Structures are given as C-alpha cells and as structure tokens.
Amino acid sequence: MSEPDWAPLTGFRVAVTSARRAEELGMLLERRGASVTSAAAITMVPLPDDEALRAHTEALIDAPPDIVIATTGIGFRGWIAAADGWGLANDLTAALGNARIVSRGPKATGALRAAGLPEEWSPESESSREVLHYLVEGGIAGKHIAVQLHGATDDWDPFPEFLDELRAAGAQVVPIRVYRWHPAPRNGEFDQLVMGIADEKFDAVSFTSAPAVASVLMRATELEIEDRLLAALRTNVHAMCVGPVTARPLVRLGVPTSAPERMRLGALARHITDELPLLCARTTRVAGHVLEIRGTCVLVDGEVKAVSPAGMATIRALAHRPGAVVSRHALLSALPGSGTDTHAVETAVLRLRTALGDKNIVSTVVKRGYRLAVDEDLVHA
Q: Which residues, 6 or more positions from 311, have their beta carbon under 8 angstroms from its beta carbon?
C-alpha cells in the first residue's frame, strides 16, 4: 500500500502570532503540512532600557518583600539578568532571599534555584489559582508581596484577577513587570494578519502568550473590525493557545479555545496537528468517493486535489448542506469578489469538477442549481 501524498495538516492555514520562537513553531507546523503565516503581535521593551523595572528593583532592595511569587522561568531569569547589568543582582537576590518564595511551575522553579533562591512551594498543576489558594489560606494580610509578571504593559497585566485577589486578602502587592511589551507597529504584516483572521483566511490562529491575544484584540479595535474578528474566532477560525493563562482573555469574550495538556511549544504543535483536522475537515461520501474538504484543498479517496479559491468557496457552499440543492445565485454570493453574472458559477463548477477528477461529484439540477451527489451512507457532515 503506497504512502499518502499528504501530511496531517495539508490544506490547513495557520496564523502564528508569536514574538519569540515563531520560526520554530512555524517549522513544526509546516513539517506537518500546514500553510503558515507569521507576524509577531508584540515587540518587547529591551530589559536594559526598562527604567520602570529598574525603579521597582531598587525599591525592593530598599524595602525587601515578605513573599515573592515567580510566575515564569524566562521572566525571572530576565529580571536577574537585567539586575546584573545594572550592578544590582547581588543586592536583589539578597533582598529576595529572606522572603517566602512561591513558584508557579517547574520552569520558574528552575530559574529560582539557579539564582540561589529555593522555593517554599510550587503546585504540580502550574496553576496561579492554586498559588493564590495556598497563600490566602496561610494568611497574607499586611504582607508585602512581589509578583514577577511576564509580558505586561504599564496598564495591562496577564493576571489581573490574581493581583486583585491578593490585594483583597489584605496584601500590599508590587507587580514586577518583566519583558514589558508594545503592540506590533501599525500598517505592517501584523495588520494584514489580523485582517486575515477577521476575513476567515485562516483555519486556526496560534497564541503562545496572553499579550499576543491582547495585541490582536487591540489592533482589531483600532482597525474597526473587532466584531468581525470575534465572529470569526467564535466560528471558523480556531484559537489554539499554549495554555489556560494565554486563553483567558479570549474565554472572557466567549471565544472557544483549545490547548494542549502541557504548556510547551512542541505540545502546541502536536495539539494543532491532532485537533485541527477534527475541527475543520468535512468528510462525506460522494458519488462513490470519500471526499474530505480542508482549508485550501480537497482530498478525494485520500488523494490531494488542488482546488482554486473559487472552487473551494463553491464546494464549501455545497457541503454546508450535503445533498441539498444550492441555487446559482446562492453560489454566486459565496464566490470571492462581488460579481453579478451567474456565468461565473458555471465556470467555477466546471473547473471544480475538473480538479476533483470526477464530474459526477457535483450534480446539476436543471433550472435549480447544483448539489453534491452524496451517497446514502453519509459519514460526517
């Protein structure tokens, strides 16, 4: 039996928003057959230039905290590295060394230990909610707590409820915003990517940080396409997030999200590979063939058929109600552009039949339109 000429993600279009390791994620997805479009959603403020971080660091050295919470490994390591560049690393670790230290997960724990700061406790789940419960149950009223945050701005934090609940429990909270970010520049590739999501030109969009989600939503608002973007993410463009913290801004807006069990880049790529065909592919038995409709191609009996954008729009419209007759005017409205001549539909159907290799897959219903010649044993619609 010959090997198939397609990979698990053949025919699927994935948008990548990562600022870091975007090339690595893109390569992982492309190796699995996906068509990848990448544009960084954010730009980072260089740590040596971050005067706000330096001011907070000096303040903690002068008034050491009672409790330190490390949320990310890269963020904590970056903080120590920045302090070292300012000649403050020894003073900072000395100030933190007398505090109770809680880590959100194994990467943060590793960064703490590398700095000579052993953690008091860390949840196996890597959940900020468990960290909160642990501290509140032990009593934190009046305590001075430093929370290392990753990917914040001056007016946006990735864990707003977490910080609010610490304050509600009586703590004095000092957010340490490491790796602050700005949205990507206007009128560039990122704008095109955001508009592409709103126009449903992708089957999925990957997010590896909550700031990237925030940046996409902010840019959609600036472009006045927020409603269209959210409608796309709630229906045909699937949000694939590296973990629950990243997904949270979307969940609040009623956007379905999907994430791997492990919050790792490789796990996200595998998750997209496993889940996207289940979410997007439409499989039907038509005219004795197994037809699988993907984002940019059709598989007929396991063989990839290259189909034009007009052909893909046509077959998706026909497959929306498999076997039902779709009028020429309805098909015309589904075609790219804003044509008014139904002759364009006849041309699209003719070319679609040629691409699929069997003219019987799409049936003509005289004076009514076209339909997929669906077999009685419909597999999946």
A: 348, 351, 352, 355
Q: Exposed, middle or buried: residue 5 (CB in 10 Å: 0-12, 13-18, 19+)?
A: exposed
Q: Does position 95 have pLDDT exceeding 70, yes or no?
A: yes
Q: For position 377, what pLDDT does the model report?
A: 55
pLDDT for 152: 56
Number of domains in the chain: 3
Residues 67 and 100 in one domain: yes
| Average of per-residue pLDDT across 212-216 | 92
**Count of other CB atoms within 10 angstroms of residue 3:** 5
Please give the Cα distance from 203 to 122 (Å, whole number): 37
Identify whether the C-beta of residue 212 lies closer than 8 Å to the C-beta of residue 245: no
Tell me the pLDDT tens digit for each residue of 297-351. Answer: 999 999 999 999 999 999 999 998 889 999 999 999 999 887 788 899 999 999 9
| Residues across the chain | 381
First to last CA, the chain: 28
Considering the domain architecture, whether residues 173 and 52 belong to the same structural domain is answered as yes
Element (H, E) at 75: helix 73-85
Please report whether residue 292 resides in a domain. yes
Give the domain range for residue 276. 13-43+184-280
Q: Is the pTM of this model over 0.70?
A: yes
Final residue belonging to a domain, choices 258, 280, 302: 280
Average pLDDT (190-210) is 95
